[in-house]
């Protein structure tokens, strides 16, 4: 859960609005509003109804909080009628899956975001005040961040993680923050070493099982209202083979949002990729901002001369202009590799694009024989875009959040590029099953197959099959040996909602999608594009005759990036974020211990 604490040191009654980034795929299900000793529990409503209740409460002087989905893992929090000298706390709770790949678990929690470039049309940077809302105006996403994260009014964060991994660990570390780790038996307590810190980058926590103790498979189940839901993890054995010759297309985002550390990290990543080219490879380099530019007209042999030319060219690039990604993707995906070659597109970007549906459609339509490998760059990349682009591109992704990570993360990527992918995956269930994702991804070295399903029975065996360029693969898993865990039903519903939303890109009927999403979200108590969480204290706190000032709280400027213009109103408000992760458990049971799960709550 995340606790947002709004403290009003002014003499005015205020309404505050804040854009809250949450992990990709988060299933947001509960919210509480705390005012002193009073606790008001949020309820799921249709989005329009929730907004109407919030506006009415704000205008009549009642304390209220609203949490609604914006886009791409961004949620808006609005809190009305914070009194002079008063502190109000809003706690938001969600379920998420913890990433397990390359023999380690990774928990990534966004604490700010990189402002998104509107690729289709400019959007207003303003979130209207309550007066605007009363006048019938819609909310608009703020594209503003604090350029001084150390100011008194910039958001700050405190993180606490209680981790019960269920397996012996060789290390726990954070690449983003200095941490203190205290062990209590088989559990761990993790805190930030510096206490309260600026909310200017993702919080990343990694833990690695002792060699030989990592899980190879897992079945976790939950029964809700008579329905059985399951999360399945299966990790195929990595295959060693001689690398095939490749046509490597390297793309680098040089837009303005990449200014500062991000562009330097992207340049370092591409330089390592160029240095790794073999004489049998072919390659090209593409850079884009407001325009797209390729170094060569088409892919060329990786001769020492042309590789040196490319490394020099990449080193001279600088960040400027907009993030017009469509042309760069189209250029990168065009072309057919020579017989016997694999075509791989490595795409380094912070993902700071808005309205990305057209980009996913382009990837689906023009992928051909290419495979897309996005590299998320910077301290607060758009993780949702990076992951979705990799899925659409039937590739894999990595994230580089700082200079110290470039070498290790690129070596991981090279390990995936050099080994054949496990493809054509299929699952055979003992009964009926509604499974997400519906299209199973290609799997690269060190990556597990992870699905959620609603099942008719747990009696029987799940059979999995796939193939690489060298050999077939098959595995089976007894469903009856499952451990129980909470949150799986909501994660299943969240994945189905995401699938329904994506079906709009393929021409699905919008009204049908809305009705189905609305039913799922209400049944599972989830925030969705059509539902929001609303909490209202029914006792008025402010005389409606007194003015209510509205303030937007700017998010922290991503660490290492260049400053953006701050358009949020200056306000005598202090905003603190408390990240409280209780009972966090890693995937699975080893040495006879069965434990839930790969879920964070």
Secondary structure: elements and pairs:
Layout: E1 2-8, E2 13-21, E3 27-35, E4 38-41, E5 43-46, H1 47-59, E6 62-71, E7 74-82, E8 87-97, E9 99-101, E10 104-109, E11 117-118, H2 130-134, E12 145-146, E13 156-164, E14 169-173, E15 179-184, E16 187-192, E17 197-198, E18 203-209, E19 217-224, E20 227-234, E21 246-253, H3 261-275, E22 282-288, E23 292-294, E24 300-301, H4 304-315, H5 325-333, E25 342-349, E26 353-354, H6 357-366, E27 370-377, H7 383-392, E28 398-400, H8 406-417, E29 423-428, E30 433-436, E31 449-455, E32 461-467, E33 472-478, E34 483-484, H9 488-503, H10 510-524, E35 531-540, E36 548-553, E37 555-556, E38 573-585, E39 599-600
Parallel strand pairs: 2-36, 11-26, 12-37, 13-38, 19-34, 21-22, 21-25, 25-27, 27-28
Antiparallel strand pairs: 1-8, 1-38, 2-7, 3-4, 3-8, 5-35, 6-7, 6-35, 8-39, 9-10, 10-18, 13-16, 13-17, 14-18, 15-16, 19-20, 20-31, 22-23, 22-24, 29-32, 30-31, 32-33
Question: Key features?
Answer:
single chain, 601 residues, alpha+beta, Rossmann fold, ten-stranded mixed beta sheet, 19% helix, 39% strand, globular
What does this structure look like?
There is one protein chain. This protein is an alpha+beta fold and 601 residues long. It has a domain at 246-417: Rossmann fold (3-Layer(aba) Sandwich), CATH 3.40.50. Helix content is 19%, strand content 39%. It has 10 helices and 39 strands. It is globular. The chain starts with a strand and ends with a strand. The model is unreliable at 120-151, 564-572 and 581-601 (pLDDT under 50).
